[in-house]
Design brief:
- The chain is mostly helical.
- It has two domains: 305 residues, no CATH class; 61 residues.
- It is built from 19 helices and two strands.
- It has a two-stranded antiparallel ribbon.
- The protein is globular and about 60 Å long.
Length: 426
Amino acid sequence: MSEAPGIPPIAAPASGPAGQTALTQPGQTPPPEVPASGVPHAHLGRRNDRLLLVAVAAYAVLLSILMIARGISVTPDVIVVAFGLAAIILGRGRLFLRDWIPFVALFFAYELMRGYADKFGLPIHVADVISIEKIIGLGGLPTICLQGLFHSGPASSPDNLATLSVVFYFLHFPLPLAIGFLLWIHERRVYYDFVAALIVLSMAAFVTFLLLPVAPPWWADKYGYVTGVLHLRDNGFQGLTNFFGFSNYFYSYSLYSISSNDVAAFPSLHAAYPFLAFLFARRAFGKAGWLMLAYTFCIWFAIVYLGEHWVFDIVGGVVYAVGAYFAVLHGPAWARRFMNRIADEEIEAGVEAEEGGEAGALNRLGRRVRWSLVSQGLAVALVGAVVAALMSAFNLLDGAHGPLYLLPWLAILGGLWRSAAGLLSR
């Protein structure tokens, strides 16, 4: 079409970064440009935010050191409480409860189920795993080789390396939790991916424990499948006791009667959890994330040296971690939409834009506490706690060792989850 005489041509409106047109009238200030990266969390590259991340990382490390020094097991429940206090100081207490209670509930549900995976009577794999391990070790067993190099005498002989290895053994999951907390502060949406990958990894491992029980090296030596493997974990615990001088060792899981599984060696979650944390740390923090890989190698050495895992278990843990990572990041579109919905990034954007913390932002967004949901959830959790306590105290229905003990705990965890859902409702 030809232009009408005397009328200047109309320029096509500029297209904004979000696909919207933007017309700037004379005398108007043009709208601020969006960074080319388009990343909503780009402001976290500022100096103050980096200092905050460093401070939180230092807090997690110092907390772990103090707990070990005082004879307190560095278990996830204790660590999460400590992170909750840090979140309150940062002005994000309600957001922390909303985001972390469902995660903790899922993790404890897994921990409870894991203890029953060896009660189905399936054959325990030992000899075939030993054959694979000898191929990896070029004819020898790596555990025996490492212990021959660094340990002298019986398993009870003093061993500083075993003591140091037990420290890393302690921290196989708490430090990945610390990575999760850093992700939650730095880029909350990535935190949700991390949690989803942890759950996928844990549940895949549980199915494997159920269908393919594998005995660890110390078990194989105890029952005569191999000779020469020393179980050095107790030696390391004793070394910590002597070094720090504590007389009683506090293990919080004993309060919940969570049972262990002696034949859940493959895949090694001691190997898988830190490696998964490394993958997400590398993605979110760049070069600094590679520090997590060094820590991961230390754990791998520790679990082989202590006689807790085969090298084959570590290989399996790495494969499962990589699989969970790619399953979450490259999963189906419906799964991504589901994660976006439960992450509810509107909350995060509002909290980060509000200098006074979460209170003003949540009010502005119309989010409030729905006390009906919170009270319902707490009531269900309380009933579950009473039933669990009665079953454990009076050995009802086989007590804490029977499969029915899962039911009151599922009520506790489900109730807490429901309460968390009511903390930031529209």
